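This entry is set out below.
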Amino acid sequence: MNSLQHDIARLIKQADHFIMHHDWDEAATRCYQVLALDPDNVNAQLKLTSIYLQRELVEDMRLTLQRLFDPDDASPHQHRRMLAFSYRVLTRWRGWLRDDFEQRPPVDELEEVERILSRAYVRGGDAELQRAWGRYIEACARHPRAKYTIQWWVVKLYAEHGFFADAAEVLTEMRAACPEDEDARYVLAEVRWWRDHSDTLIWLP
């Protein structure tokens, strides 16, 4: 067994331990850590699905969504809002709580990106998303020294608005530029899972 396989086996064993003791947060964290090392690990993917099917969690999420969202609104952007809210509640990466994510955009060009994504989040309007991406690319080109900060800001913006495919694309670029960044690797594992497995979250209508 090589070092990577050993690390994955150790994390899977830890996940099993936490699942046995109903410590769902720690179990989910270990599963995402596995997916950060092996994005196609079926065992970790299935464990996450099982964690998110726990009755208490499903009931809590359903009650919360019924309280915060219009139950009669069946529009696609309403579904995405619920999905985005679910991610914000259940993400296990503590880095989102850092102060630098609570401040204004690191460069002025991102203010328009934020406005576009906020409109798409609230009312739909996905036609403008390509323009938002273009503004992000322009910001990186104009501020090369701030590129990594810009990328983290944009990743958070996309993820918290439910645009997980876009967040994953930015993180993939970050990983190529800085493969040793374990935070980017972990968050990429999260947004990929949410991009590919949102249909398993049974509290969503």
